[in-house]
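Convert to structure. Protein one:
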Amino acid sequence: MSTTPSLKGAGLRGPESHPRAFEPVVLILTVVLSVLGAFIGLHLVTTLGISANTSVIGALIAMLVARAPLRKLRDMRSVHRQNLVQSAISGATFAAANSLLVPIAVPFALGRPDLVWPMLLGAGIGLFVDSWVLYRIFDSKLFPARSTWPPGVAAAETIVAGDEGGRKAVVLGIGGLVGFIGSFLKISGHALPFSAAGVALIGNIWALAMFGVGLGVRQYGQEWFDVDLNELYIPHGFMVGAGLVALIQAVILLARRSPESTEHATAVGVEAPEAMQNTVNERGLRRALSEGYVLFTLGALVVGLLGGVLGDLSGIQLVGWCLLAGFAALVHQLIVGLAAMHSGWFPAFAVTLIFLVLGLVVGIPTVPLALFVAYVASTGPAFADMGYDLKAGWILRQGGTPYKLIERAGRKQQYIAQLVGFAVALAVVALTWKSYFEGNQIPPVSKVYADTVAAGLTDTSTLRNILIWAIPGALIQFAGGPERQMGVLLATGLLILTPYATWFVLGALAFRLIWNRVRGPEASGELNLIGSGLIAGSSLTDVSRVVKG
């Protein structure tokens, strides 16, 4: 399933040879594009309720800058510098929209604008811990770099095609054009999700088949079964069961002591012997997750104290609230990350809603529950997006010597670039949230959280349905194993209502099987380019809606 590697890292000799995020030209471009990315994210999440992956936008702008007739700007012709820039803009987009504005809108929508600033601080902590954990565990056996991470492949293929040109650029361009134009087409008022087809051409077939089935049942469930699956919390039950089994599988994976994997790198985008081992060992993985839980718990304590939850909770209850919030934040990012790694989609809203319902079940009071949900919502999207960006960098750095040192050095610079993007996003949200909220531009998902918290749990059948439907979700996840994440992906599809996406996913999978049978697996590289183009073109369509708006 792999493409022939371009080995763009072949020119890197030693970790000091990798470009730095704080180089003047890179830093200036990073800050400017991060401001752009932050406003794109805020506009989309407040008007359409969605976010867009802007990494391709960043890469394309970096390519254009590199062709300006100025000597200093020629440094941007480096694919590694372009990768730093695309990491920052996509990080700023998801950080501003999903990790910051959505959480602080929850207390505002609940009628507690006085809690916006404490929640912004808490969301900022959640954002930075979220990205720090991913930085520490990316390319471990739990989140291997050789896994799919589809948008990351799309970003890398875009950068490589822009650098090399030729047939690869033509194939990618055709895919991009189809994705861009196709995403403007609508059926019954719904835009066609060409990005779903792009993901299906790249990702794990088993996982995406379950994802496609879930999308179909979600869209046509009421028509087929005369049952509103979402109202009965059936998809949420599937995710609870699949998520618990996925968590147990992750714990077993952490507890199992074995030599570092020497599995051949069959990832999309590279097939090079130097990528045969993970760069993060089991000890580093366990330590990062443990420290992440501690940091999430401390962040929850800050939110709780500044948010005044002691008015509703005793000291002992506050401790329990913080421990539960830290655990929920960690589990939330892991489940969202696993779904994103395999499908390119992350069900952050739905998984957060599950923890909201569980909070109602255990009887957390209104204000502490609102802060709990908002804090959990701040994790996940940045984790997933950074995984995409680090995947792109991993592909581009193949061929560097020595491999592990180059990979770690490049990953560090990407992390620094994303921190710049996060800081810019935090500043933009801090300066603009009031104007958005006073203009009634509140993210729809935040209104759902606030309304659910305010309404409370009036029907005990909700918990019963979740527990009943958790059983098949758990069984499917167990059957598929940790490599395929079939239960999590089926639940992800059930939780996401994207009209007609099921046909694009299943149709692309069928096309992929026929393609490989007729042309052979060695020709799958062109499929990866087409899929990457579809994803890139669709993301450009999302951004164009901002311009149009």
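Protein two, convert as well:
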Amino acid sequence: MPPAPDDNTLRAAAIHRLYTLEKSEQLTRTRIIGVADAFGVDPRTVDRWLANARANNGIYQPTNRSSFTLTPHMLDAVTRWRGNATAAWRELRSEGHPVPSLPTFHRATNRALTPGMRAGLRSGETARRRFDVSGERDRHHRNHAWETDHVEASVKVLVEGHVRKPWITFFVDCATSAICGLAITPQRPSREAVLVAIRDAVLIDEHHGPFGGIPTYVRVDGGKEFLCAAVKEALGVLGTEIIALPPFTPEGKGNVEAVNGAILKTLFAGLPGYTHAPTLRGGKPVDPDQPLLPFEEFVRLVLAWVHRWNHENTPRSLKGQTPRQAWDADPALIDTVTAEDLHTYTLERHGKPLTINNGGIRWRRRNYIADWMHGRVGEKVNLRYLPHHDHRVELYDPQTGRHLGAAVMTGQATRQQAISLKRARTREADRLRAQLRKAEKSRNTRYAAVTSPTPPVPLDVMPEEQALEHLRALDGFDLAAEALPDLIQLPEPDGEWTLPLHPNQRPTHSKDQP
């Protein structure tokens, strides 16, 4: 669609029409009043416009009013004074530069700098962005796109006696504004928190609720924990495409930013230890001895708030529906993955296979052991681990990818794990002992006891029927050897029959007889 013409263009077209009518002697006062009403001016103003067209051969050429324009040196002065036009005007005047009156200088400054630029000069880029205009994406269907981000809780909590400000990692569905998963950490999140949040967001079961599945796209900011190799591999295996937005562009992921702002106002503001609470003179807190929440209680409150957001909150964009209602009303199919496969995908993989030795698996100068390793010394395994959780690793067959089991760090195994390890070692030794005894027993021949001087009879001699069955199984059974020709007597042959000759008897012919 072509752009609409400005007022000067429309004015020139209207005046040219009046000029044409005037030349043909068809111009009336009513037509002039109609043009004046259309532009919201007095009819005498239209008369002046028409006079301008007569002086320029029927073409209306408005005379631009001369105005003062800031020079580059004046703009530099305004910038140095952080957008303060009055201070810049005084400096220029004191230096002897020709400057107009202060109101004229202000008007020139407003024409040269937009409100966003003036706010940026005063308070920086964050203030300038408040004057930016951003559009709105299509919502599509559930699991078409997710948005993720970290938010620092504006609440101080107790973590093992230390005061910390937790962080929350959210995964939000763009179509329904549902919070599909999250991860809470007492410190600034790393790739470990992102992997845990992915696992929590994708799974659908009685513990994780109905929200989840495999998204088509995930929008992230430029944080290194979102763009690390482990997260890219985990989402790549699921077939999810990562869309990396430019840094510091909250307008690019408005859904998760709305969640961040909502939890700040509707949860954090009412908790003890809120860092943005009103203070007394000198910045002193109103109640310095206010008891802080333990980390476990903070997590419980956040999970309860997420449940209310998904089941009770009605965002304006959903037109009166809750995220749960919008999710259930969406007919789009949900792609899922089993918990076992997801557990594998969301673990970071060590590069090359490792060898099981007598001390278990050696990784990062530590040994990892498990009860299932007994008897497997020398075998190769692939190792996967959750970042910053070095106490436990998962091991897989390098050929088939089958999960072999978990292994724990030596020295950090619990008492139950140590007992299981000892029992597994005992079972492996008992199994070997039983196998050796069976082999020895089958090698030594045992004989039956006798009471008279007879040859020894082995106890493992097979009966005749069993021996025949064994020969048949080995294709050693011969029917001719088993035949019994004398069991039934055959009748005497008839005299007219020709009897077979004995091999040593010479045949007699009729010509040899006398």
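The mean pLDDT is 83. Residues 113 and 440 are 99 Å apart (CA to CA).
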